[in-house]
Design brief:
Length: about 180
Amino acid sequence: MRVLLRLSGMIDALNDGIGRLVYWLVLVAVVVSSANAVIRYGLNTSSNAWLELQWYLFSAVFLLCSGYTFLRNEHIRIDIVIGRFSRRVQALVDVFGIIFFMFPMAILIMVLSWPMFMDSYLTHEMSSDAGGLIRWPAKLLIPVGFFLLTAQGVSELIKRIAFLTGHRDEPGEKMHSHS
């Protein structure tokens, strides 16, 4: 179990580092959006590339921070129901949800998005909008983001099982409320 908990710690560190780095892209997106608005309304000119760059930045934040969000236990859940259960039952519900819902969904999206990315990369797909950007970087975000989410799912599963087997005092980074 020690080896698995070390693996969990490495996954946690990876998603924490990526999350802390990537959430700065929100600021970059705001600056790009503001500059684009000033140029468009102040100079009466614009480029689709600026709009697409904003889309790429927000996509990067959403997709690359999914594992970070899961690590921090800030994902969507039904706390009003699960919060009434003991930590052990909460951990069991998490194990069930990770195995039967999160893994199949995340792995399916990751696997199905890879060929779309590869096709885009190999064909040098460009935006159909005038002045638009290349598309493969945005399409690469999908399998990478779902890989990070799946990896964090592995980490959370390890932590829940360690808690359930008595190898850890807490099931995850943050506990669900008991109120």
